[in-house]
Structures are given as structure tokens and as C-alpha cells.
Design a protein that fits this description.
mainly alpha
């Protein structure tokens, strides 16, 4: 079904306004749906009909920002895109995740919390499942299929936003230091496939 032009404009206005409000807020919980509706210039009813609740709105903003990265992974040039050697693509993928999460840390922090109220958890969210599948596939090419899924979970754990945020804000690591350490972990894992 094709979205009406006015509905598409309203959706874009909501995503932009919500993104600004979420980025500027000390806590995402402080941003109400009323605040978003007012900033976007839409009615509160429109906002609730379209997004349902704040968690869905947060996920939609996050997923909209993730579109560019997903496109680079699916269709972009190597080393992040298809056609790269897995030994180059795996660290490129994890680098990109670290950068994306640090650039969108408030949204990522909110979404990576374990939610037990019926909402998708980190591990069942479409973006996580998609990334885990790709990483598992790439790892299987280097280390074999037996441990690839488990190793993919472990490597993705090294990119969790609560960890990378802690390393940057509490431990004082620079973003490049975090990326270098994740790459070193990848190198150790992939070297296990050489024996």
C-alpha cells in the first residue's frame, strides 16, 4: 500500500522532531508524546495512531537512522558491503556498529535494555537478528559453522552501547581506542580459524 503524501510528510515531521527531542533530552523518558506532537505540528491522536507508544516511536527513529548503515552493509562498497573478504568485512561491520551506537547512544541505550513487557528485546529486534545472521555467515566462512552463531553473539556483545558508552564516558577511552580493541578481539577470534 502506498502512503499518502500528507501521511508521509507527517511521518517525516514526527521522526525529525522526535529525533531532535530525544537527542536533546537528558533522559528519553522526559520526552512525552505531547512534546513530540507539538514539535512535529501534528495532533496527538495522529501520533498515537501511527506509532502507538513512545517505545515504538524510539525504535522507529532508531531504525530510520539505521537505514543508511543497513544500505551500506547490503549494497555498499567493501569492506563493509558485499564482496569483501570476511576477515575484512567482520571488523568493518563491528567498527560501523560501534560508531553508530556512539552517535545514537541515547536511543540505543533505551532499546538495548532488556524489556520484559512484551516489547522486542535486543536479541529479537529485527536489526539485531539481521546483523547476527550476517556476522554468523561471515564467521562460518573463516572459523567454520559449529561455533559461528555463538561467536557472533560474543562479538556483538562487545559492541553493546552500555559497554561502549561506559568505556568512553567512564574509562576515558577514545572512540578509536574502543574500535581498536574490538578489532583486536576480532583478530584473535579469526586467528583461531587458521589452525
Amino acid at each position: 500500500m502506498v502512503e499518502r503524501a500528507d501521511a508521509a510528510r507527517n511521518r517525516q515531521a514526527v521522526l525529525e522532531a522526535a529525533g531532535r527531542l530525544f537527542d536533546d533530552a537528558a533522559e528519553l523518558g522526559a520526552v512525552s508524546m505531547d512534546d513530540v506532537a507539538r514539535a512535529a505540528g501534528v495532533g496527538k491522536g495522529t501520533l498515537f495512531r501511527r506509532f502507538g507508544d513512545r517505545t515504538t516511536l524510539i525504535r522507529t527513529v532508531y531504525d530510520a537512522r539505521l537505514t543508511e548503515l543497513r544500505t551500506a552493509i547490503a549494497d555498499g562498497p567493501p569492506p563493509l558491503g558485499p564482496g569483501a573478504n570476511p576477515r575484512e568485512r567482520i571488523p568493518a561491520l563491528l567498527d560501523a556498529l560501534v560508531d553508530f551506537k556512539l552517535d545514537n547512544r541515547k536511543l540505543a541505550m533505551n532499546l538495548e535494555r532488556d524489556q520484559r513487557d512484551g516489547a522486542a528485546t535486543l536479541y529479537t529486534s529485527p536489526s539485531y537478528v539481521e546483523t547476527h545472521h550476517l556476522l554468523t555467515t561471515l564467521l562460518a566462512e573463516v572459523i567454520g559453522a559449529d561455533d559461528a552463531a555463538w561467536i557472533a553473539y560474543a562479538l556483538l556483545a562487545a559492541t553493546r552501547v552500555d559497554l561502549v558508552d561506559h568505556l568512553v564516558n567512564t574509562e576515558g577511552m577514545a572512540r578509536d581506542d574502543v574500535r581498536r580493541n574490538v578489532r583486536a578481539l576480532v583478530d584473535r577470534v579469526l586467528s583461531s580459524g587458521d589452525g
